[in-house]
Amino acid sequence: MEAFVNHKGLVAPLDRSNVDTDQIIPKQFLKRIERTGFGEFAFFDWRYLEPGVLNPEFILNEDRFKNASILVSGSNFGSGSSREHAPWALLDYGFKVIIAPSFADIFRNNCFQNGILSIILDKKEVDYLMGMSLSSRNYQLNVDLENEVIYDDEEFKANFEIDPFRRESLLKGQDEIARTLTSDSYIDTYEKNRIKRW
To answer: Measured between alpha carbons, how far is 73 from 109 in angstroms, rounded to an integer?
Structure first.
């Protein structure tokens, strides 16, 4: 996965709580064996009135949010089943950062594993970002993972906390397998000594 250090991007609002993984990527699209290609099906039941016909009432279908890479949403984002396809779909759609007052634990871990930064902010801060993204034509945020701070070009600034292991993994662009492989020589030594004992 790509390293995540700093990101500046357009913010899109999804003012809904309890957005579950079946809404993020419905079950009928889970047959693919690749991790890519899920973006066109993200939020499928909300985005489309019928296949190929966009729903004009769905906020993410507005032209001004077309190139958004930061999603702001309500509490308990990513609840429901543990399908890893949900962060795959969001990443393929173009989102690199998701901000919410709370996340489902498994979903949040899956985001970290796939290079998406999920940030927990106070509800008042989330409401402010939601309001700014709705009232502005091109509202952008700067996300600095190294210093764990998020800010806009006006007056908003907030600190956030990420588990140190997850933070380092994102900064280095390493999932758990890649992190394990950095200890390859220690693993080889252990295996050789284990075989000798038997």
So the answer is: 17
Identify which has the larger pLDDT, 101 or 186: 101
Q: Is residue 183 part of a domain?
A: no
8 A C-beta contact, residue 100 and residue 129:
no
Within the chain, strands assigned E span: 6-14, 48-50, 53-54, 70-73, 97-100, 117-120, 140-144, 149-151, 157-159
Task: Read off the CATH number of the domain in which 73 is found.
Answer: 3.20.19.10
Residue 193 lies in a domain: no
Number of domains observed in the structure of the chain? 1
pLDDT reading at 175 higher than 80: no
DSSP string, 1-15: ----SEEEEEEEEE-
In a domain, 181, yes or no: no
